[in-house]
Design a protein that fits this description.
The chain is of the alpha+beta class. The protein has five helices and three strands. The protein has one domain: Ribosomal Protein L22, Chain A (Alpha-Beta Complex). A three-stranded antiparallel β-sheet has the order 1-3-2. Helix 3 packs antiparallel against helix 4. The longest helix has 19 residues. The radius of gyration is 19 Å and the shape is flat.
Length: about 130
């Protein structure tokens, strides 16, 4: 590996030390429905996002709520004794990608069949502290 590439890789590794990631694979919800909820909380403070997800009527918000709790517990594992309220955590990134698609057949009139695509998605959630940026 070249020197510039190595230095860049080291810089990226240093930046990732302050990020706390949680991911969830093969969620049986369509990516479009999950993106609606993800867009709602992207960039929010963690406390506000937890409340917004907890009281949202959408079914996808329950799974994102649990994923956010997992990312917070990842943060707590590295920062023992620190309080969430004092650290100014916020949701830096939420990415929702398409997962595997189950293809099913539904009977239709006159001997035909319609294809049903049961979609799933992968979610990656990254939280960061606003104190490190200032």
């Amino acid at each position: 590996m070249g020197a510039r590439k190595h230095n860049r890789a080291e810089a990226i590794r240093e930046q990732r030390k302050s990020l706390y990631v949680a991911s969830l694979n093969n969620v049986p919800t369509s990516p479009r429905k999950m993106r609606l909820v993800a867009d709602m909380v992207r960039g929010m403070n963690v406390e506000l996002a937890l409340h917004a997800l907890q009281y949202s009527p959408k079914e996808a918000s329950n799974r994102l709520y649990k994923l956010l709790r997992s990312a917070i517990s990842n943060w707590e594992a590295k920062n023992e004794g620190a309080r969430i309220e004092d650290s100014h955590l916020y949701i830096k990134e939420v990415s929702v990608d398409a997962g595997r698609m189950l293809k099913r057949v539904q009977p239709a009139p006159q001997g035909r069949a319609h294809r049903i695509r049961k979609r799933s998605n992968h979610i990656t959630l990254v939280i960061d502290s606003r104190k490190t940026q200032e």
